[in-house]
Amino acid sequence: MRLIVLILAMACASPALAQNWIGLLKNTPAERFDEEDLRLFLDNSRKALNEAPEKQTLTWENPKTRAGGDITVLRSFESKGRPCKEVRVRNQAQGRKGDNKMSLCKVDDKWRLLSASQLKK
Predict the structure, then answer these.
(1) Are the C-beta atoms of 113 and 5 separated by less than 8 Å?
(2) Number of domains in the chain
C-alpha cells in the first residue's frame, strides 16, 4: 500500500512535495532510493501513465546505485467519466523488491489512486 501512495504522490507531485511522502515508504524498495533513483522512477511513472500504450513495459535503472524497476499499463478504462489505468509497478533497490498492481484515474489533470469502492461509484 505504501508503494501505491508513493506512485500516487510522486507521479504527479513536484519534487518538493514528493519529499513529504518519504515517511510512507517504510519497507518498500523506494525507501532506499536516492534522489536520482527517485527522479528516474518518477520520470518513468509519468511517461507510462501519460504516453505508454497498454502492455508496454517501461523500465528504469540507475547504474550508480543499481536500483531500478518497471511499470506496465495493464489496461485503460473509464470511471465516472475519467480516464483510468491499471498498472503493475515493480521496483528493486539495495536488496528489496516490490511488485504491486494498482488503478489510478486522472482527476484535475493529475493521476490519483482511487480505492476499489471509488472506482465503482
Answers:
(1) yes
(2) 1
